[in-house]
Write a structure and sequence with these properties.
globular; 5-stranded parallel β-sheet
Amino acid sequence: IYQEHIKYLVGNDKQLELFNYMEQYIANILFTPGKLPKVGLILRSESKQIGKNLFFSKFFENTLFKTAILDTTKPDQIFGRFGGSDHKFVITINESTMKSNYDLMENIKSAITDPHQSVEKKGIDTETYLNVARYIFFSNNFNCVKIEQGDRRFVACNNIDKAKPRDYYNKLRHALDDKKRLLCYINYLGT
């Protein structure tokens, strides 16, 4: 069901190519967490509640550790002056919009590619640390991130399908909580 859902999320356009890329991206997080891919993912869908955040949040919550993940709807919490990824491996930005991201685009691009990040906390000295964060943007908006012609920092997937029946998501949620099943899939990704 994991692979079925990834294929569903990446949409029909270049499905096999994007599916393979997505599995490699996930494997990179699990097996080479210190190697920055220098690419952020954008998962866009026309339908709401197709399981974008459900899949990635539950998957990494159950395969990494909860403190390695940050889910937010506020990009300035990460990319703003007093933001930062603070040693996170996976950061998901849900309900991403061009309006919320536009003024932060230079910081977003830097966070995706720079090997080190500096964090300024209010009233505390700036701290620099190794950047290991992977950024995944979820949106139902067509223009959620400003991507310039030739920019290699983003891989965008566009799902135009309708949301699946509720039973499908219940099965997916159950599979994402099944540690033995997750371990089998992780072993597969490692091959």
